[in-house]
Amino acid sequence: MSIPFFVISALTVAGGLAAMTLKNTVHCALALSVAFAGIALLFLSLDAQFAGFAQILIYIGAVAILVVFAILLTRGSETPTDGVHSGTWLVGLAIAAAVFAVLGWAVLASAPGLHDEAAAPVVTVRDIGNALMGRYVLPLEIVALLLTAATIGAVIVAMHEKARTK
Amino acid sequence: MTPLAGYLLVAALLFAIGLGGALIRRNAILVLIGIELMLNAANLNLIAFWRYGPHPEALTGMMFAIFSIAVAAAEAAVGLGLIISIYRHAQTTDLDRINRMKG
Fold this sequence. Notes:
The structure holds two protein chains of two kinds. By secondary structure, chain A is mostly helical.
């Protein structure tokens, strides 16, 4: 437990809280990219360089931009006049607090039994590439298929009705 | 408190924030953002267990996280496509007002 860990986690949690509580939807998307960057920094502090940079590329580079595009395409940037919370917000808040209480209790109760290997693992991108092309080649192919299907499906779903009937 | 417990607590807090946002907000895009936060918290758990687990050289947790990131990207693309399609149909992304399943 070091000072950088506390700073990064505070940044991440603040970004996540802002993304879920701000009124303006565009501000929420910007706060979301702060939270994603914080998670990428946490990955880097866990010696997972590849996952950290993949997180920056995919989440900040692609998902956050996609969210901003969707917000602008749906006029979601206008703050609704009758509040941004649903009618059952109290129930949702209670469920989220209960889930956090259970998870936190489970973590703290099992903390003495958790492994804490001190030595940092030495994993190069070459090792990850070898693993992806060797032991994990079937999941890699399935993910490739899934991404292709998802891209085509997203385009077809979002296509204009008139363009589809042409 | 051990470092692993610290990372797990941060992940649990992020998960709870994402869940609360997904349950509370009315804008469909913000519900999707909450789901993305929950997926990221799960990835943080996977990477933390990989780093502090007994066999990090086996790369299992890292591979889980990488595949999970890829699946989450596909999910975001399809979800946002669906939201744009619903918006075109109902002229709103307010989930309290999208309450019909029939055209």
